[in-house]
Task: structure prediction
Amino acid sequence: ELRVWMLHNNSGKECCWVHVLNCCKDKQENQPFPTIKVPAVVPLVCWSHERSYSFRLGNFAVDLQAAGSDGIRLTMESALTARDRVGVQDFVLLENFTSEAAFIENLRKRFKENLIYTYIGSVLVSVNPYKDLEIYSKQHMERYRGVSFYEVSPHLYAIADNSYRSLRIERKDQCILISGESGAGKTEATKKILQYYAVTCPASDQVETVKDRLLQSNPVLEAFGNAKTLRNDNSSRFGKYMDVQFDYKGAPVGGHILNYLLEKSRVVHQNHGERNFHIFYQLLEGGEDDLLRRLGLEKNPQQYHYLVKGQCARVSSISDKNDWKVVRRALSVINFNDNEVEDLLSIVASVLHLGNVQFAADEQGNAQVTTENQIKYLARLLGVEGSVLREALIHKTIIAKGEELVSPLNLEQAAYARDALAKAVYGRTFSWLVNKINKSLAYKEAECPGWRSATVLGLLDIYGFEVFQHNSFEQFCINYCNEKLQQLFIELTLKSEQEEYESEGIADEECLRPGDATDMTFLEKLEETVKNHPHFLTHKLADQKTRKSLGREEFRLLHYAGEVTYSVTGFLDKNNDLLFRNLKETMCNSENTIINHCFERTELTDKKRPETVKVRPSAFNRKFLQQYPYGLHMRCACLSSCRFDEVLIRHQVKYLGLMENLRVRRAGFAYRRKYEIFLQRTKIFIRFPKTLFATEDALEIRKQSLAITIQSWWRGTQGRRKASKKKWAVETIRRFIK
Ligand code: ATP
Ligand code: MG
Result:
């Protein structure tokens, strides 16, 4: 029987020793353990959290989690049994690390025990439990605060705390990247990380305000930018990159949000089983009678064309009424005064009214507005002339040779113009909202002196990869963004060489072709340009067998996350997102301060092409690369699973590249730190004068254990080390100790 004795080192923090005390079989109860000669101290990489320890002993990988009752003396047998039950906390400890089956089995074991977090080195893998596990309390936060990554069981808080400490100790900007498919738990993870900082970072009155605003920006952005989809009842329909600025004391003093590509088309159309953005339902469900009267709205969402397409106005998991209260409160925390709230809600209401504007054709086939009531409300809510708006909705103006030509629209064109206006109004208001939040988050020098030495921690939460039965431009943008993110991650963490994608910009180029460009010419152009790419297929390019599964208007891409078939129908329109000039002009004259701000007059005079949706998420790649050349090492990969569906999990493990990640971690060092920083952190142990130690022996033991610890630390948990690196590490340590 092998007995192990777990001891904390003096600080109780940085690491633990295991003393192997006894290998003898027939020890009597209550007799002291005879001490064995070798080895006195077994080095280990271990985690201790309450009574949970993981380490490697000889050929055994031991996870003592939940084993034994006193947490101090444990038999190897019980330890191994415990490991069998709960799996390993870090995949690098998996014996059979190349086996996907072993990987998934480990995830399954842990998931069964409600252990949703597992590491691959410094990457955290999380499986969505879809239930409240009560692991996010203040006590949990305290447990992770200031504690070394490897000492505590895997948790989001460990990632949050580690980034925070790197930021403070190394004074380097950090970034936490969260990836995973739609519904995997990315947004929840972001919120939990923010809550962690709000609770654990130093406080002061000013700082409390910033913390509050950081937290309260979420419900507002989610109300306007999230919606129920088939995959997630609270799906983010925009990408968000949030910077939190910390001052020299480590207190959050400001923040900044960058938003990417809101899925504006949702404003005017939703697929069956999906909803429009939450705010519409919240306003109707929660808005006070008086407010709704002012906005000319009725409570019933069925009254509004823009809310009925998905046929699911009510969702059991969502309480629009409660959410409305949260949003209203949040708006005041982030500095909205009553007028601004009224203007904002007027815009929300005006989008609903716009959706109800109907047209009929006159004898010439020209569209005429038939819903005068809506125009009346719109005029009031948007602060524009009713007659001007009415005319703008059914005509278009073109400037040719300096002359303004006005031509009537037919029914189809008028409906297009109306929807374009709704999308533009909503989309621009969303950007305005983000700006407004940014102003309230911006550091105010008088309030937080000393911020100039501030460091920044970034949190990236984008919309997750999604595949539906019918995939269009929106999915193309979202999946492209995810693909880029994945590539960025590979570049930055695994350092493998990846080629730049050649396809970037193709869509834009085709949209710029005047007049004759259609969705089909776009497809042809695409075929021409990327026909030889093995990951691209169309009806024309496919072989006999595959051809049947592809429509003439479709193309298929093999993404990192699997195959997706896109329909090009509507691609160009959606990308161009054209808003006729006269509608723009009408909005420029709006008395609604937000609208007025969103539609600037210069747009009318500028020769430059109007803003289009650009599929260029690589712009944010570049920003990252410049901003976080080294800091982007924290990453959280979220997996989605209602129950533990193995097929689903396997697919995600594959596309998130977790097996490759594990292989790389195992081949090199599982945990990395720059040499200078390592030296900075550890030299104090070596330079201690002898007198601090009671005896020579104690010093000797200290030196030895330090040497072994450093050695094992450099090696990583059990990474296959390269001989030269090992030699170098050992020599460095020797020099150190001398
Ligand atoms: P999308 O890409 O569509 O925005 P997402 O990855 O952001 O998806 P979330 O909205 O964060 O997904 O999570 C979806 C749902 O899963 C949440 O509304 C919540 O019900 C549940 N969930 C996520 N994380 C957790 C967690 N840690 N504990 C319990 N439930 C969770
Ligand atoms: Mg989300």
Q: What stands out?
A: The mean pLDDT is 77. Residues 411-441 form the longest helix (31 residues). Residues 128-133, 180, 182-188, 232, 234-236, 463-464, 638 surround adenosine-5'-triphosphate (ligand 1) (CB under 6 Å).
